[in-house]
UniProtKB/TrEMBL annotation:
Residues 31-61 are annotated as: Disordered. Residues 351-473 form the Glycosyl transferase family domain. InterPro entries: Glyco_trans_1 (IPR001296). This is Glycosyl transferase family 1 domain-containing protein. Keywords: Transferase. GO terms for molecular function: glycosyltransferase activity.
């Protein structure tokens, strides 16, 4: 087969549900004069089976709009070779900014080296602490859970004490609507955190007024223009924040911003059966993007850091980000606000002089309340209600906890001996720790185990399973049982309950070996670690991963349970604010311009390329201009006709590139069309809908055939 000459053609492959031959894309004249580019030759492929499937994206895809009634497809016209393209037209391009892996040519696969550290602005390290997670949590709740409690502890000490020499601290909150960060008033934030600790009523007027005032102040603040060399430190969760990494990538490109997240666990990847499906998918998607954009890692335990590195190695082998373990062994009493016992509602469930056990955890399957409830039931039946203390469970209802709650509901003995307290303030929790006889903390898997630290800080014996990071949190001070072993748990509980000298001896061990450190010490370690990572060289983002020629990339909201590099790369290819949020089918562009930047591997040099674009037309007819460029040279300028109906695939041949540079695709949808109920918005304007793309060498017939088979055939059932 003779080689095909690259030409200026963008051929639309017909939809498998569209009975009419595809229309050819129309080439536009050059941007800066000269002879018009030749119109591309049109070619319609034969009609194919009625349902397309995608080998690289096995998740269900919403069906396209219904096609018109089938008619006989006319025979395809003969292929007319396109005239030779004119010489590429140089187009002035803005100089690329540093720190985006799409800015520069990717290195050869596996090449990893560090670049010198960036220069600090005015010799001062600017650290921005991202408190988005806490503020979003406060939108619907008041009593913090473990991760929010950690952030509040670190931030409150950081804002109350002098910053290290040469360091400037400030707070920021992510705005998903504007894809930017806005400043947060430190005094207002710390005051709100202090107020959260004094009560549990999320509808209390004073709480609502303080929360809404701070929220309004943040919303009215201008976007942050990050200073050169600034570092964004996210101490909490960001995997539920829409388009977080697309906004971060823009800040990295514009300001050279560095990003260091604090990872509290990899639970959704390690024990996904104990998480909601959406949580697993969100976390997996976040984790893949984090590997492309982070400049360092903070972790709460050696176990968590080990899990993170193992998961990163599956998608980015050979790259190891700098990391530090910051143990969360801080004294919770340091941040507690004193309160009169008579004003604490939770204490009213206690009987005078009662000895009770305490279990602090969200009621969900991962915490395995079922095992603890079963052990309590055995104790009651073997030793009698008079000898067994009541179990006070502090925690909100979570997910997959039906088995434990059903046991509690169906066992009268347990109903009299187990008390559930879903809404407990920090003040009340401190009082419960001080009054309990001992504590139990069970879980299938943990990144740390903050209730263990809290119990040890109060001098209380802790009974917990021996696994994951619980042994780091408990150290030599906790009492351990074999994980998921009811007999072993019951045996340890019997000794703690009925052998008072043993319990007193264990309490002495707790006082000696379970002493916590201050939140100031935790804060200092975080700031020192971040400053050190900022001074180190980095793995340039453009070297972390590359597009693979011949691979099908899907630009939709990934629904996978494990991190996926191809999904992360496809998402990172969307550049700027010209795109709506990802949806399960793909993504709509906004009115005006929307861009893709595709980092090309070395195999792309010196050979003509073929680009396939899988698109979804909007609900009204329109036309989208497409400009392809690389290294400041316009390679192609064509018009993509968009008519309502089935999804379409456009094919574009590109000339050989003389040097390695990212391929830039700029789509211009003009005023676009009005739409309702798409992209999570009541009303908006949409242009081209992008479902995926594939780029290969023009002479790679195997990749081209595989892509066409992907469009045309159903895979055999496995």
């Amino acid at each position: 087969m003779p080689p095909e000459a690259p030409g200026q053609r963008a051929i639309e492959l017909p939809s498998l549900l569209d009975p009419e031959p595809a229309l050819s894309a129309v080439a536009l004249p050059p941007l800066f004069g000269g002879d018009p580019l030749p119109a591309p030759a049109a070619r319609a492929l034969p009609e194919a089976p009625p349902t397309p499937t995608f080998a690289f994206a096995p998740e269900p895809v919403p069906a396209p709009l219904p096609p018109p009634a089938p008619v006989a497809a006319p025979a395809p016209p003969p292929v007319v070779p396109a005239p030779p393209p004119p010489p590429p037209v140089p187009v002035p391009m803005p100089a690329p900014s540093p720190l985006s892996f799409l800015d520069e040519a990717p290195a050869a696969t596996g090449r990893r080296h560090r670049q010198p550290p960036s220069i600090l602005h005015d010799g001062v390290l600017k650290l921005m602490l991202d408190v988005s997670d806490v503020l979003i949590y406060f939108d619907g709740a008041r009593t913090p859970t473990g991760i929010q409690r950690v952030q509040m502890g670190i931030v409150r000490r950081a804002m109350a004490e002098a910053a290290p020499s040469g360091t400037q601290l400030s707070l920021a909150c992510y705005d998903p609507a504007a894809l930017c960060w806005r400043p947060v008033d430190a005094q207002g934030f710390t005051a709100l955190c202090a107020l959260a600790a004094t009560g549990s009523d999320a509808q209390e007027p004073g709480w609502l007024a303080a929360r809404d005032a701070l929220r309004g102040q943040v919303a009215a603040a201008p976007p942050i223009a990050f200073p050169a060399g600034a570092v964004l430190v996210n101490l909490g969760n960001s995997w539920g924040l829409a388009e977080y990494f697309r906004a971060l990538q823009d800040m990295q490109r514009r300001y050279g911003l560095r990003y260091i997240p604090f990872l509290h666990d990899c639970v959704p990847l390690i024990v996904p059966e104990h998480c909601r499906a959406t949580m697993v998918q969100d976390y997996a998607r976040w984790f893949g993007a984090m590997g492309l954009h982070a400049h360092g890692l903070l972790a709460n335990s050696e176990n968590t850091l080990r899990d993170v590195r193992q998961q990163l190695a599956t998608i980015l082998p050979g790259m190891e980000l700098p990391g530090e373990v910051v143990r969360l062994d801080a004294d919770p009493r340091e941040l507690a606000t004193p309160a009169e016992a008579g004003n604490l509602e939770a204490l009213r469930v206690l009987r005078h002089g009662e000895s009770f056990a305490l279990f602090v955890a969200t009621i969900e399957s991962r915490k395995n309340h079922l095992l603890v409830f079963s052990a309590w039931l055995q104790l009651l039946r073997q030793h009698g209600a008079a000898r067994v203390p009541r179990l006070i469970c502090v925690g909100k209802p979570g997910w997959h906890a039906e088995a434990a709650l059903n046991l509690l509901r169906n066992a009268p003995e347990l109903q009299r001996h187990i008390v559930l307290l879903p809404h407990v303030s920090d003040q009340e929790l401190d009082a419960l720790y001080a009054r309990c006889a001992f504590t139990v903390y069970n879980s299938h898997y943990e990144g740390w185990g903050l209730p263990i630290t809290e119990a040890l800080a109060h001098g209380k014996v802790v009974v917990t399973p021996r696994h994951s990071a619980l042994t780091e949190a408990g150290g030599e001070a906790a009492l351990y049982f074999t994980p998921q072993s009811l007999p072993d748990l019951q045996q340890v509980l019997e000794r703690v309950i009925f052998d008072l000298p043993f319990r007193q001896a264990q309490e002495a061990i707790v006082r000696e070996k379970g002493r916590p450190r201050s939140w100031s010490a935790v804060k200092d370690q975080v700031l020192t670690a971040v400053a050190r990572m900022a001074e180190e060289g980095e793995y340039p983002l453009e070297e972390r991963a590359q597009l693979r020629l011949g691979q099908h990339y899907v630009t939709r909201r990934a629904m996978r349970n494990q991190p996926d590099l191809s999904a992360a790369l496809a998402d990172a290819a969307r550049e700027g604010a010209g795109w709506h949020r990802l949806e399960e089918w793909g993504v709509w562009s906004r009115e005006g311009s929307a861009s893709l930047r595709l980092p090309l591997p070395e195999a792309a040099i010196g050979a003509p390329l073929r680009l396939y674009l899988e698109v979804r037309p909007p609900f009204e007819a329109c036309s989208v201009s497409l400009r392809c460029a690389a290294a400041g040279i316009t390679l192609s300028l064509v018009e993509l006709p968009m008519a309502p109906g089935a999804d379409r695939t456009f094919m574009l041949d590109l000339p050989a590139l003389p040097e390695l540079a990212p391929l830039e695709l700029d789509f211009d949808s003009g005023a676009a069309v009005e739409a309702t109920g798409v992209a999570g918005q009541a009303e908006c304007r949409i242009g081209l809908g992008l479902r995926g793309f594939m780029l290969c060498r023009l002479d790679d017939h195997a990749a081209r055939l595989a892509f066409l088979e992907l469009q045309s055939f159903l895979p055999a059932a496995q």
